[in-house]
Structures are given as C-alpha cells and as structure tokens.
Amino acid sequence: MSDKYAVFGNPIAHSLSPLIHTFFAKTLNEDIEYGRVLVEDGGFVKAAEAFKASGGKGFNVTAPCKIDAFNFVDKLSEAAKTAGAVNTVKFTSDGVLGDNTDGVGFISDLKRLQIKLEGADVLLIGAGGAAQGILYPLVKSEAAKITVVNRTASKALSLAQKVNSDKVEAKGFDSLCGDFSVIINASSSSLFKELPPLDDSFIKKAEFVYDLAYTKEGSTVFTQKAQSLGVSSAFDGLGMLIMQAAASYEIWRGVRPDVEATITYMRSVLSSR
Ligand code: NDP
Asked: How far is the CA of 63 from the centre of ligand 1 (A)?
C-alpha cells in the first residue's frame, strides 16, 4: 500500500501540492498517495485524527489551518515555534511533530535565484501570515536591515515588535524613506491584480524584486511593474512553493526531491491550464 499524505485547508481545491508531491515521488521512484482534505470550520482536529486513523503518515497545512495545526501537534520544531504556525505535520512513534518549511523554502528560493541578502536593505511588504513566516528567516539571514511596510501600518508595527530585533523597523507607506536593494511583496495584492501603494521611486532603485504570489506566466502585476521600471531581476513565488514542499517531503521521507525539474514541470502544468 502507498504511504498516504495530504494537504489540509479551506478552500483546498486550488492547491498545487498534490501535483507537486506526486511529481516528487515519481521522479524519486517512490510510491506515495497525496490528496486534499477540505477542513470545515472548527473541524481541524477531527479531520487530522481521522487522517491518522486511516494510515496517514503526515500532511501539509494551508490557510486557514496553520494555527490549528500548531495547537494540535505534540512537538514543535524551532521554525514552527518562531513562525507561530505549522505547515508540515508528521506522525511518528514519538508523537505528532509540527514543523514550518515556509521560511526555509523562501530563503532557498532567494538563493536559487541568486538574490543577494548580504548587507541588503530589505523592504518587506505585508504583515499577514506569509510575512510573519518569512520575517524571522530574513532576520537570521545576512540582510543588514528589514523594513516592514503594510497598508494597515499598525499590523506592520505589531509584526516587527514580535521579532524584537534591531535589524527590523515598521512603517506605513506614507512614512517610508530610504533605498532598498531587495523588495519582497508578501502582501496578497497581486492575487487581486492590485499594486501595493508603493511609490515607483523605491521600486526603480531596487536590484531584486520578489513577489510571493505566483501565476502561470511566471510574473505578477508587481513583478511586471518592477520590470517596466527597469528592474530586470523580478520573480514570482512558484519556486518558494516548490522549495517549501521539497522541505516537507524531506522531513517525511528523508530524501530531497529535484526542485529544478519540478519548477519546470509545474510551469508547464500551469501554462497548459
Ligand atoms: P493574509 O491574508 O494573511 O495577509 C494579506 C496581507 O496583504 C495583509 O498584510 C494585507 O494588508 C495585504 N494586502 C492585501 N491587499 C492589499 C493591497 N491591495 N495593497 C496592499 N496590501 C494588501 O495573506 P498571506 O499572508 O497568507 O498571503 C500573502 C501572499 O503570499 C499571497 O499572495 C499568497 O498567495 C502568498 N503566499 C505564497 C506562498 C508561496 O509559497 N509562494 C506561501 C504563502 C503565501 P492589511 O493588513 O492592510 O489588510
């Protein structure tokens, strides 16, 4: 019988995780089954226990269940503790382990794309779940300074306060100043085909722009805007999605999938839709 995994969330029909993990397994010549679990409001624990009882080995967790998963597991990794959220659950004989691979997925993708963080002044747009997941890994990176900016400025402030680092400051868009060599859009603006209210002058001076949102074209309204302003290194977040999935796969099965081959495969899947 195949080892059983899944992704939990609501909505879940759109999730690319089953395609990604099935491709990982195929290229590694492993036999797994990876499904989707739609979690009803308040139904996380019941769904997780039913999955375990049915022989599930582990599962991924997406919005809005990452905090439920955090509370559900017996043991948390350091990454899960600092993110305050779990995206990878593993059932073991020692209990239920909770990890978070979003941060490592993000940093690995920046490395893959040769986005330089050493000494960088980073602008992080957004203060939701994704921004929270990547802020601590950014603080731990070689970046010199991270400025968090958010449409609702008070949320940027409380996020910055949570990490409590001299490297981090919070701003509203109207009080933003300075030059940023790396701009990360961790807001959900691109999902609505909107741009964050960031003055073009900041974008023009950036060396690298990265949007966590992803599209079949490989560009978002934000990366397109950056390119139109002369930033040639502007990337969407598909690589991060695949990197975090690869890290989950490795946690479960102890082997590292071929990330580059999966990115090529997923781009072709998305463009044929
Ligand atoms: P949340 O709903 O938790 O947070 C949304 C954030 O976006 C808030 O800070 C919100 O600001 C801001 N925002 C929304 N619309 C606009 C706008 N038009 N202009 C400026 N700011 C805006 O979402 P998540 O943090 O979970 O997700 C954010 C993005 O990250 C999404 O695009 C998601 O797809 C992507 N993502 C990608 C991953 C990957 O692996 N590539 C992994 C996880 C997320 P306010 O506080 O003012 O409402």
From this structure: 11
Contacts of residues 39-42 at CB distance under 8 Å and 24 or more positions apart, as own/partner, are 39/8, 39/9, 39/10, 39/12, 39/65, 39/68, 40/10, 41/10
Residue 111 makes CB contacts below 8 A (sequence gap 6+) with: none
Q: At residue 110, what is the residue type?
A: L
Q: Where are the alpha helices (DSSP H) in the chain?
A: 17-27, 44-53, 66-72, 78-83, 102-112, 129-140, 153-163, 200-205, 221-228, 238-253, 259-271
Of the candidates 6, 247, 263, 10, the one whose C-alpha atom is nearest the C-alpha of residue 137 is 247
pLDDT at 1: 83
Answer yes or no: is the C-beta of 151 below 6 A from any ligand 1 atom.
yes
- Residues 248, 34 contacting (CB under 8 angstroms): no
What was the pLDDT predicted at 129? 85
Q: Which of these, 143, 109, 150, 115, lies nearest to 237 by C-alpha position? A: 109
What residues in the chain have per-residue pLDDT under 70?
none
* For ligand 1, mutation pick of 174, 187, 266 (most atoms within 8 Å of CB): 187
Residue 107 pLDDT? 97
pLDDT of res. 138: 96
pTM: 0.95
* Tokens representing residue 92 in the block: 């073991």
Q: Output the CA 221–ligand 1 centroid distance in Å.
A: 14
6 bridge partner residues: 35, 59
- For 256, the enclosing helix (H) or strand (E) is none
Q: Distance between CA 212 and CA 204 in Å, rounded?
A: 19
